[in-house]
Design a protein that fits this description.
- There is one protein chain.
- This protein is an alpha+beta fold and 112 residues long.
- Helices cover 39% and strands 27% of the residues.
- A five-stranded antiparallel β-sheet has the order 4-3-2-1-5.
Length: 112
């Protein structure tokens, strides 16, 4: 005979509800690890950055995202005016302020 006979395969046994949950367990574990290691710390940093920007006031010493160091002269709306040198003031977006420096940092840099 040139064509062999084909036999139907027996149906797979039905899985229980516990087996379905066990197959989802690795996916749940991966999502939990991503949340704890990536998502949660990022939202915490974003919240801290937002609070720092809202609390900016005259006299604060800051670093912008471009690396410019300056002292806040005036805060208005979504802008701050930074004094980056004697008689040099630059308007900057509040969102460009990256870090709030400890008081006296700019004075110690000027002495060097």
């Amino acid at each position: 005979m040139l064509i062999s006979e084909a036999y139907a395969q027996a149906a797979a046994p039905a899985q229980s509800a516990g087996a379905d949950l066990m197959s989802l367990l690795p996916l749940i574990a991966i999502f939990t690890v991503f949340y704890l290691l990536l998502i949660r710390p990022q939202t915490k940093r974003a919240k801290e950055q937002k609070l720092m920007i809202e609390a900016l006031q005259k006299g604060d010493e800051v670093v912008t995202t471009g690396g410019q160091l300056g002292r806040v002269v005036r805060v208005s709306g979504s802008y701050v005016i930074l004094q980056i040198a004697e008689n040099v003031q630059v308007p900057t977006l509040k969102s460009a302020v990256q870090t709030l420096l400890p008081k006296g940092t700019l004075s110690s840099l000027e002495k060097e």
